[in-house]
Amino acid sequence: MALIWSMLVVIFIVYAFYELLNNIQNRKRYPPGPKGLPIRGNLHLLGLVPTIVVSSADTAEKFLKTYDHIFASRPHNEAAYYLAYGQKNMLAAKYGPYWRNMRKLCIQHLLSNQKINSFQSMRRQQVELMIKSLKNEACDHRVFVDLSAKISSLSADLTCLMVFGKKYMDEDLDKRGFKALVNEVEHLAATPNLGDFFPFLGVIDLQGLTRRLKDFSKVFDEFLEKIIDEHVQSRDQKQSKDFVDTMLDIMQSGEAEFQFDRRRYVNCSNGHFRSSYRMDTNRASSTSSCVVKLLRHGCKGGHEAALCSSTNASRVHGRLCSMALIWAMLVIIFILYAFYELLNNIQNGKRYPPGPKGLPIIGHLHLLGKNPHQDFLKLAKTHGPLMYVRLGLVPTIVVSSADTAEKFLKTYDHIFASRPHNEAAYYLAYGQRNMIAAKYGPYWRNMRKLCTQHLFSNQKINSFQSMRRQRIELMIKSLKNEACDHRVVVDLSAKISSLSADLTCLMVFGKKYMDEDLDKRGFKALVNEVEHLAATPNLGDFFPFLGVIDLQGLTRRLKDLSKVFDEFLEKIIDEHVQSRDQKQSKDFVDTMLDIMQSGEAEFQFDRRHIKAILFDMLIAAMGTSAAAIEWILTELLRHPHVMKKLQKELEQVVGLERMVKESDLEKLNYLDMVVKEGMRLHCVVPLMPHEAMEDCAVNSFPIQKGSRIMINFYAVQRDPNIWPEPEKFLPERFVESSIDVRGRDFQLLPFGSGRRSCPAMQLGIIIVQLIVAQLVHCLDWELPNGMQPCDLDVEEQFGLATSRENPLMAMPTYRLNNA
Ligand code: HEM
Question: Which residue ranges does UniProt annotate as crossing the membrane (predicted)?
Fold first, then answer.
């Protein structure tokens, strides 16, 4: 590490000196701004790109009117580069003849007053259709309507009809649907891309964004090619021409004043489609906020100075003219580091487990995408169940088979029971003081004992039985009401998630909290944000010295979130302190307050520790159980014969006169098989890192102290050597099998195994079994819009809990006799 550190220090010094010299030499006088760091620059995200932020009307006038001819270009943008055929779309094109002609063409054939008026009757029809559908939904019941979805879908229809001359269905684009894909594109385009701010980093794709952008561009390209083909085929039979036809005419006539082929006009339509869709998916609540969103987009896209000029006595520069020094430094580092690694390996005679070829410095980070558990599984197929990869500077061992997992979680559990440093847990959980991320040692041991005793003991779990019954009954009642008259489509993911949040709050905090108690964004959105941030590869985890620089801006977001959660947890503790004397029974927070005040804890235990544990429980409990239930219901909807068989078992054991009780669960053998198979196929926690506390050897390969161990539960549970036809949902594979989920059988580990296994396993199993049984017993479920079972997608969204990427939508019908 010494060499790397010294190299970095040298770079920082050389670069800072270079900046200073450059400024003195050129006598640059920049506009005022906050103090910046060397390399990262003086605005958080803008790295090497000098950036001017304009925030007042008169200064805006200077840029958009007086010097409009200078600032009318757009900067390089990685997202537009990959999504829009080399930034050839109007939105991101550089200022010049190409952009000018493109804009003229669009205005003439799509945005002229005459054209806008010609779509008037189409707009009327579509808006009328939406109002009619709202009227139908409103007529009998006071139903909740997802207004954002309605507006979004109307806007998509208007855009498609105007640009493509016809409406397209979700599945025309991809099985994930328009909204999900456009949202994902927006998310990618909005994620600060290191390649935009440090141009030389674009090639390395440290964040894995380029790979995702390329995937998306393929999907959109296929869709747009299909539209063009349809138009080419139907041209002769058409009476009136739409925008695509007009562009085809221009292309074929050769009249365009610029190079105009399939790629260019695909861009034309793509740009419009995306910009108008962007407007609606931003959940704009009013026209003015729509405009603001568009302006914000303009800001994000940015303008670029085409020339250097003086405005308000400030010199505004384009991109840094001289990248040569930085390039040279980087090349030297790469060469030195590669040489150092080679020398080091030869000297130590290190024999790593097999693994893919890595790159200098970043190692294998570039091989991981948005679902790293799937990427690791693919790599393990080539390199075996004990694989070595290097994530940045961190040596990592990936385990992908049952017998190797047994070595790590049983034979050498005492060596691998620690957790590595984690930036997200560091900022969110009071310096990694929570149980999930705590280092192995007396603190973690005592914390785990305390939670097991006061929250997860059989006695405690049973004491919450009636609370669980009440909350589940309430959800079934609300579904029954929604189902009773109309064939309504229900967002089952949202229902399950909200029930799971209620159960967790009541169990851990002793009372239900409303969304606005946490923050105006609500529980689900914030917990999702925590999960997303915790799952985003943080450079600080793989290059410890980069944590301070916060190149990705993640630390700032983590700190903001931790402030919101801290205020919420402080409020809960204060409420408990105030109401302690009037309480007859004690909840988990009261018990922890007792321990803190008695001074009996065998370890330092103050308010920070209580908050870290409460945060843990909230995050660990809410997402995991909900995701497991969501996946099992997904598979039941994809396999109607399994759903029927399960309903039959429930009819026999429980009967159609009443709901399921917890005491019924032990008699429901087929339910047990369905839950096991669902948790096998869809691993809710596919990767949980462990850390080696000592040097050790496994399967005769040396493993260094400090190595990160990734047990890929997802790969273990899909190992074809153990599970025939592993991709299929076959609950019958558990007939006459004693394989269990509790960590004794290493081929099925949804809750892990050994010292760091899930302490709430028993509770998790009860919640999942009970809610699945109740939803299947009380209601029949059908897929919406005539969707076939095999069309229901199983796209995963990796996170602390890996859930469905798209919400599960289904139509319920009440089936018990006590209607
Ligand atoms: C279906 C539901 C659940 C699943 C599938 C699940 C799965 C897991 C897994 C795989 C681990 C990590 C094992 C390892 O590191 O090797 C874990 C750890 C943990 N889980 Fe769960 N879990 C579930 C529900 C819950 C609930 C309801 C809670 C709390 C109320 C909870 C609290 C925890 C905690 C605190 C840890 C960290 C333990 C440690 O590091 O010592 N889990 N869980």
Answer: 324-343
Cα distances (Å, whole numbers) of residue 450 to 401, 602, 625, 743: 33, 11, 22, 21
Ligand 1 center to residue 759 CA distance, Å? 6
Rounded distance from Cα 397 to ligand 1 centre (Å): 21
- Note the ipTM here: 0.98
**DSSP strands (E only) in 2-74:** none
- Bigger pLDDT: 387 or 442? 387
Q: In the numeric block, which tokens belong to residue 230?
A: 């349809």
Ligand 1, atom 40, residue with closest C-alpha: 436
Q: Which two tokens stand for residue 10?
A: 């040298």
271, 331, 214: which is closest to 74 by C-alpha? 271
Q: Within its chain, how far is the Cα of 412 from the centroid?
A: 33
> Distance of CA 635 to CAs 631, 667, 731, 785, Å?
6, 22, 10, 18
Taking alpha carbons only, the member of 693, 706, 689, 701 closest to residue 383 is: 701
In sequence order, what DSSP letters do the residues of 397-456 get, joined into one string? EEE-SHHHHHIIIIITHHHH-B----HHHHHHTTTT-STTTPPSSHHHHHHHHHHHHHTS
Q: What's the pTM?
A: 0.68
Q: Is 754 left (phi over 0), alpha (psi -120 to 50) or beta?
A: left
pLDDT digits (tens, 9 = 90+) for 688-733: 899 999 999 999 899 989 999 999 999 999 999 999 999 999 999 9
Q: In this structure, is the dihedral angle defined by the CA atoms of residues 502, 505, 510 and 515, taken in order, positive or negative?
A: negative
HSE, CB side, 13 Å, CA atoms: give it for residue 735: 4
Shortest-distance atom of ligand 1 to CA 755: 41
Q: How far is the C-alpha of 336 from the C-alpha of 359, rounded, in Å?
A: 13
pLDDT at 111: 81
Q: Is 139 annotated as a binding residue?
A: no
- Report residue 752 as tokens: 């892990």
Nearest one of 379, 382, 360 to 368, comparing CA atoms: 379
Judge if the beta carbon of residue 630 lies within 6 A of ligand 1: no
Cα of 666 vs centre of ligand 1, distance in Å, is: 22
pLDDT in tens, 573-602: 999 988 877 777 778 898 888 888 887 777
